[in-house]
């Protein structure tokens, strides 16, 4: 672990200004923020975001940052359902010019080696992969992010058949020569994982993002296929 990149930014906090929001699919929105200066982060990391314009309980939450520094925006994507929590109601109520506070971004969920890479996303777990693929598109090898020449594969599972950033993913995967499959059948999802493991075995690097339960299950599945835990990077999200 690189403490300077992965953990020390937790001590950095700044206010970021709300720019706009957009509906990705029904019930899921992306919120964009700007800051001067813009914070630096590794594609795939997450920030700690605190509501400051309204007094609420549990005013702080982590979110994966779905954008890269070069876009000039901090983007987070979350579900806003018909009965949102106080936090999400406050987030959805932001108007242009209002601010929230961010710590970080932090975490070790980013590409460090030029190795065959399997990206496993479940539901909203696709958010950090947007940033990872955007960074690969720019072939930005600075600061620890590797411009891969090795094979990359994205397997995105959602039983509902709703896939975030679908059009953008199509473009990004084409530009980065990433193999992509959108899957609604979990058995097929597992079968495709096995195929990658059979081909690359422990030489591969395995990224896993989803709910805590699903992440735990997939990590156990990979371990059962003989993958060293050091080659599995996981990012569980809570309450997205």
Provide an overview of this structure.
By secondary structure, the protein is an alpha/beta fold. The protein has 2 domains: 3-106, Elongation Factor Tu (Ef-tu), domain 3, CATH 2.40.30.10; 117-236, Nucleotide-binding domain of ferredoxin-NADP reductase (FNR) module (Rossmann fold). Helices cover 25% and strands 30% of the residues. It has helices spanning 3-6, 86-92, 127-137, 166-175, 186-200, 212-224; strands at residues 13-25, 28-34, 46-50, 60-64, 74-79, 99-106, 117-122, 152-157, 178-183, 205-210, 232-236. The strands form 2 sheets. The chain has a 6-stranded antiparallel β-sheet with strand order 4-3-6-1-2-5, covered by helices on one side. It has a 5-stranded parallel β-sheet with strand order 9-8-7-10-11, sandwiched between helices. β10, α6 and β11 (232-236) form a beta-alpha-beta unit. α3 (127-137) runs parallel beside α4. The longest helix is centred in the C-terminal third of the chain and has 15 residues, at 186-200. The two termini are 26 Å apart.
């Amino acid at each position: 672990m690189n403490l300077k990149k992965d953990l020390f930014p937790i001590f950095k906090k700044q206010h970021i200004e709300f720019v706009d929001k957009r509906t990705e699919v029904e019930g899921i929105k992306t919120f964009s923020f700007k800051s001067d200066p813009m914070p630096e982060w590794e594609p795939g990391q997450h920030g700690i975001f605190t509501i400051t314009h309204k007094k609420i309980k549990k005013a702080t939450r982590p979110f994966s940052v779905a954008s890269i520094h070069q876009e000039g925006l901090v983007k987070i994507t979350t579900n806003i359902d018909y009965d949102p929590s106080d936090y999400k109601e406050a987030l959805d109520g932001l108007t242009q010019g209002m601010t929230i506070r961010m710590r970080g971004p932090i975490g070790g969920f980013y590409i460090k080696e030029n190795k065959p890479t399997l990206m496993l996303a479940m539901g909203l777990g696709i958010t950090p992969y947007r940033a990872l693929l955007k960074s690969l598109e720019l072939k930005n090898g600075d600061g620890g992010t590797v411009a891969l020449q090795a094979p990359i594969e994205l397997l995105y599972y959602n039983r509902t058949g709703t896939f975030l950033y679908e059009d953008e993913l199509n473009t990004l995967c084409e530009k980065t020569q990433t193999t992509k499959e959108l899957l609604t059948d979990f058995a097929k999802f597992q079968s495709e994982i096995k195929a990658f493991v059979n081909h690359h075995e422990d030489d591969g690097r395995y990224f896993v993002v989803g709910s805590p339960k699903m992440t735990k299950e997939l990590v156990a599945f990979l371990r059962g296929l003989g993958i060293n835990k050091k080659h599995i990077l996981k990012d569980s999200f809570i309450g997205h």
